Amino acid sequence: MALSAWNSVALSSEKSGINFNYEEKEPIIISGDKSLIRQALMNLLQNAFEATHRGEIKVSASKEKNSVVIKIADSGMGIAQDKLSRIFDPFFSTKEKGLGIGLYLVKKIIEAHHGQIEAQSEPGQGTTFLLKLPGGRHE
Q1: DSSP 100
Q2: What is the C-alpha separation between 75 and 58, in angstroms, rounded?
Q3: CATH number reported for the structural domain that contains residue 104 in this entry
Q4: What is the pTM of this model?
Q5: 2: pLDDT confidence band, cut at 50, 70 and 90?
Q6: Number of folded domains that form the chain
Q7: Amino acid 119: pLDDT
Q8: Domain span including residue 111
Q9: Which of 9, 16, 99, 101 could, after both became Cys, cross-link 45 (CB 3.0–4.6 A)?
Q10: Per-residue pLDDT for 134 more than 60?
Q11: Are strands 56-64 and 19-24 parallel, antiparallel or unpaired?
């Protein structure tokens, strides 16, 4: 399921000069509501795409013990530390025309699947989102 979520973003990134890299050690199937998980992943990728100008977006998926770990990292503008703690709050946005519901919904979707999400960021260096979802199995 994961690779299909990346295809449309990968095609867009080629047109804009962003290097898109997806790494999966072995095919992994994520358990849960396929539509909701896809929505969460696409939202994170869209944010990475919007924050990155002529840079790189790296996505990796792996299985660790009883969890699937997905890492989405961009080389975009990053998020200031004083704002990072609020990015999952409803109606908080660092974007000029953002509504502040995207990352809030991503977190709710991940949590509804008994997962966790965290963000790390450095201004000027980019942002990394780390998702942990229980279960998952190899194809």
Answers
A1: S
A2: 9
A3: 3.30.565.10
A4: 0.86
A5: very low
A6: 1
A7: 97
A8: 2-138
A9: 9
A10: yes
A11: parallel
Cβ atoms 29, 63 nearer than 8 A? no
Query: Angle, to 10 degrees, between the axis of helix 2-16 and the axis of helix 34-51?
Result: 20
Say which residue, 133 or 95, is predicted with more confidence: 133
Which contacts of 15-18 are long-range, i.e. CB under 8 A and separated by 24 or more positions? Answer: 16/49, 16/53, 16/54, 17/54, 18/49, 18/52, 18/53, 18/54, 18/55, 18/56, 18/57
CA Rg value for the chain: 14
Given this model, what pLDDT does residue 78 score? Answer: 93
Q: Check residue 23 and report its DSSP letter.
A: E
Contact status, residue 9 vs residue 49, Cβ threshold 8 Å: yes
Q: How far is CA 43 from CA 36, 40, 65, 86, in A?
A: 11, 5, 26, 17
Say how far apart CA 85 and CA 42 lie, in whole Å. Answer: 22
Residue 1: what pLDDT?
44
Token digits of residue 53: 């100008």
Give the pair of three-digit tokens for residue 64.
């660790």
The pLDDT of residue 14 is 56
Helices (H), 30-120: 34-51, 81-84, 102-112
